[in-house]
Specification:
Helix content is 54%, strand content 11%. With 213 residues, it is an alpha/beta fold. Bound molecules: cobalamin.
């Protein structure tokens, strides 16, 4: 059995090599991907707490995030699964001014795993780009991520831009550590999910069985 506690520590310490090796080992040992993922996200929670307590600074947070990204990339094929046939399309991105993308990437992976085609716009995405990409790809879902209290206010602009466009069937789902269900309701978003697993149910119910073009 893989030492998943050691995986958590490796990510916290930004030890990419160990994090990747332990993730490979866990996958080869057929550990449940959800359990592996939990041990990774636990590391990010600790890193956040330590940053807040001024025990670590941005560089340490950055190396931890890099270790996390490399390790989660190995999990993607397992989370997405084989025989992927999309039945709706989502565009997803991190809001303008915000560079955090780990949570957004996980939501994208879970959506792909749920047969939703995902167009990932990356980070620092303007409302106009969300709308243009949704139109271009015939998306039913626009997923917006924000991790900062200073950037989450921009989510309202995405909702407003979608409403002001000709995309009447597009539903906006918001999430990210800074966002709450109350805030989502306040800005008029159609959906909110606190984590990548619950984002699947929310997207499915809002996509309403629309077919990919
Ligand atoms: C890693 C990290 C970084 C990395 C990001 C690297 C990367 N590629 O993402 C780096 C070092 C770059 C960084 C920079 C900064 N960071 Co930072 N960062 C973090 C940290 C430690 C972890 C975030 C993370 O990846 N979590 C793990 C993922 C899995 O969780 P998640 O993002 O919340 O996503 C889940 C849910 O929220 C949800 N979700 C997420 N997105 C979406 C989208 C949709 C549509 C849905 C439905 C759901 C959903 O599902 C996800 C999976 O379950 C957090 C602390 C924390 N606990 O959040 C601070 C944190 C977010 N950062 C913080 C700060 C202050 C900063 C900086 C301003 C620091 C600085 N002084 O420069 C900069 C800002 C840079 C910028 N312009 O964006 C603060 C924010 C405070 C606030 N409330 O505004 C935090 C909370 C740390 C703290 N406790 O103070 N950071």
């Amino acid at each position: 059995m893989t030492d998943l506690a050691a995986l958590t520590v490796a990510i916290e310490e930004g030890d990419r090599e160990t994090a990747v090796a332990l993730t490979r080992e866990a996958i080869e040992a057929s550990e449940d991907p959800g359990t592996i993922l939990k041990s990774m996200t636990a590391a990010m929670a600790t890193v956040g707490r330590r940053f807040e307590a001024n025990e670590i600074y941005v560089p340490e947070m950055l190396v931890a995030a890099r270790a996390m990204k490399e390790a989660t990339a190995l999990l993607e094929p397992l989370l997405v699964g084989a025989g992927y046939r999309p039945d709706s399309v989502a565009v997803i991105g991190t809001i303008r001014g915000d560079l955090h993308d780990i949570g957004k990437n996980l939501v994208g992976m879970m959506w792909k795993g749920a047969n939703i085609a995902v167009v990932d716009l990356g980070t620092n995405v303007t409302p106009e780009r969300f709308v243009a990409a949704a139109r271009e790809h015939g998306a039913r879902i626009v997923g917006v991520s924000a991790l900062l209290t200073t950037t989450m206010v921009g989510m309202r602009d995405v909702v407003d831009a979608v409403r002001a466009s000709d995309l009447a069937d597009v539903r906006v789902i918001v999430g990210g550590a800074a966002v709450t269900a109350d805030y989502a309701a306040q800005i008029g978003a159609d959906g909110y999910a606190a984590n990548a697993a619950s984002a699947v149910g929310v997207a499915r119910s809002l996509a309403g069985g629309a077919q990919a073009p």
